[in-house]
Amino acid sequence: MDTRRIDGSLYRGMVAAGALNLRRHVTEINDLNVFPIPDGDTGDNMLLTVEGGANAPADADLSSVARDVADRMLLSARGNSGVILSQFFDGIAAGLEGAADADPARFAAALEVGVKHAYGAVMQPTEGTILTVAREASKAAADSKADTAEELLDAFLSEADRSLDRTPDLLPVLKEAGVVDSGGAGLIRIAEGMRAALDGELAEGDLAIPDREKRADTPDFSRFTEDSVLEFGYCTELLLRLLRAKTDPETFDLAPIVSYLESIGNSVVAVKTGTVVKIHVHTMTPQLVLAFCQQYGEFLTVKIENMSLQHNSLDGKTPAGKTERKPFGVVAVACGEGLISMFRSLGADEVVNGGQSMNPSAQDFIDAFDRVNADVIFVLPNNGNVILTAQQAAQMYSKSDVRVLPSKSVGEGHSALTMMTPDTDDYDGMERDMTDAMEGVVTAGVSVCSRDAENNNRILYKGEYIGFIGDRVFSADNDSLDAARALVDEIDFGDHEICILISGADADPEEEEEIAGYIRLSHPGCELYEVEGGQAVYRYLLIVE
Amino acid sequence: MRKVKIITDSCSDLTPELLEKYGIDYAKMNTVLDGETSPARLEWTPEEVHAFYDLMRAGKRITTTQVPVEEFRTIFEKYLSEGYDIVYVACCSKQSGSVNTARVVADRMLPDYPGAAIYCIDALNAAMGEGLLSIAAAMFAEEGLSADEVAEKITAMRNNVNEYITVHSLDALARSGRLKASKAFIGNLMGVKPILTSDYYGAQTPMKKVRGRQNSLHEIIALLKDSIEETPKYPILFCHADCRQEEVDEILAMIREELPGREICVGYFGPIIGASIGPDAVGVFGIGREVTFGKDAAEN
């Protein structure tokens, strides 16, 4: 098929197909993680980002669909690759500004604007990453002078593949790990899906509602008791198969559903793909949603969740608008009940759940900023892969002066927060003090190796325990205690006087005591503190400051 | 001219040697442990000090009471009857109500001693800061100043007393209600040590945090040096709440190195201050630059 013009509905279909294809390959992308621990995987991050965009409602106008897709991706962006991806699509939307549809040349030009925005997202662009792949592939697409969208994307893809293969030559860490760049690989999977959409290869059943978002959470039913009042309503999502017996599935118009849903709820999203309609709405009366939709078909899936239980309210704070405006506040990112309460007790007003196993999205941050409700907000991302998302959220947020402190680890975040002296209105000084406090803090950890790998000149085997400092592995052993002891030997305690041992969800209390004893014995001058962090992924974390 | 007697109270943490050297007497407050009240004496032995702080380390709560009326009456009577005018350098009114009690007692007694005077001065400091102001008062009296002149001089000097204390945790002080601090200073700070000072209004206020004990010890000495370097006339007082002898020696060496040639007196945080500041606290005190910390904040 020769597609000479891309309009709004086609573009939306392409993005949805891109998301779908990435979903099919998400494990493979996750496995390209340089560091063999399942923490904040690129595949998951990119998928959640692009799926946010794919939720945009259909519209014939290319310019407005592209903008909507980009805005949604900006909000759902997680992890560095997710943020860069969202900026790439933001640039594409900028390049398509005012276009009801676009020919291949216009679209190619928009891709190049996308590249500019993507590079602009990071302070120091690194070559050998998704940036390189996007840049080289977009240039090839433009150079191809393609007459059809198919040719354009083929040109994009064939150069993208070559570019991806070159990433290990540009980035030594990839070469050492024996992988290609995961973000670049994710971009290719999205582009492949977009290309397939041109051939009409988007299968309708594949629009299944993403459930990954919820995988780390078990709802806390105690949040809604016999005395509770329904305050937030229900997040209601469903897939509806349009039935010939009830309506004409092919020509079915979403407008009546949308206007009805808007009359009984908000955050309405309705998308029709083939003869399946996907609905998302926040409402106090989900039964009305079901009754109304059933006029047109039958349900494939239905999900109704009391939003009082949802994970953003994990720390039990009052919803937005209920708190008084404060001069300043702190938002920190942590996962694990113990770590969350540690950050709270140190003075964080809001703790965004996530960090290791699941990187939070820009939207998660924006919600937290709303809840903090302060003139100045300090953000502690506490993970190298979350800083960019926090910065993106900060940029999008105009209600407060949001300052992201680049804390790359739990240790740095802890250090910054303990040294915070809030009895001042000198926020620049405070920011300086907190940033200085991160200097020299060591964060080490013990975790299970998720695949055979090589790191720091060590061969690592799937399933063994590895001890690491930053992103370099210093010990590996089938015995977790031995791995921990060997790790302690490798840490340079230098002038540090304080050591904090944080046990994860799968830690063993007796073993933890052994480790604590070992630290006391080998570093008698150090004050040792033990914290039950309850975090996922990291069996133990060790902060030396 | 009438003789002048300097009186302070149990909060001054002056050692028996200093009390004797400067001819200072003190009114006793009381400590209460398990319902039993005992006078807070500053003449306690290292064994008594150790036993006291070990009780706190074991989690015992020791509470305190201000100077009883009877105690003031006795001590004032003693010196008035010997023909002295009295300057009472009292623990900061933010920490103890003793100064107000003293004023009431003095007003009632003075009509019986025509021509005598008692000046009750809120030291705006506690612990050895209050002690240091008492020493300054004794030095002025020694120079031959009258009681009202001494009172005027030391009233003007109150904000020149510099106090820097470091503790492992502020929880005991916060529990005692004698701390002005936000929650960022309370709770398990895991190795971060608050530095306390007596602010412009005499409130015990954490002024900063320092990571690690060693750093915090260096910090209080650096802060002291910066404040008092140019006023060598007065001694440096250093007190601690039952620290190990090695640490005490180490701190002394640090002070000597930073402020060579200065007179340094070492003592303990006495039972009253000790009961709220907690074991292992270290404080250094000197007279120097005017303290302005907290000046802009509304007094409360």
Structure description:
The complex is a heterodimer of chains A (545) and B (300). Chain A is an alpha+beta fold. Chain A folds into four domains: 198 residues, DhaL domain (Serine Threonine Protein Phosphatase 5, Tetratricopeptide repeat), CATH 1.25.40; 77 residues, Alpha-Beta Plaits; 128 residues, 3-Layer(aba) Sandwich (Rossmann fold), CATH 3.40.50; 103 residues, Hypothetical Protein Tm841, Chain: A,domain 3 (2-Layer Sandwich), CATH 3.30.1180.10. In chain A, 43% of the residues lie in helices and 20% in strands. By secondary structure, chain B is α/β, with parallel strands linked by helices. In chain B, the strands form three sheets. In chain B, strands 10-9-8-13-11-12 form a six-stranded mixed sheet, sandwiched between helices. Chain B has a four-stranded parallel sheet with strand order 2-1-6-7, sandwiched between helices. A three-stranded antiparallel sheet of chain B has the order 4-3-5, covered by helices on one side. The longest helix of chain B is centred in the middle third of the chain and has 16 residues. The model of chain B has no long low-confidence stretch (mean pLDDT 92). Classes of the chains: A alpha+beta (545), B alpha/beta (300). The interface between A and B is medium-sized, with 20 and 18 residues.
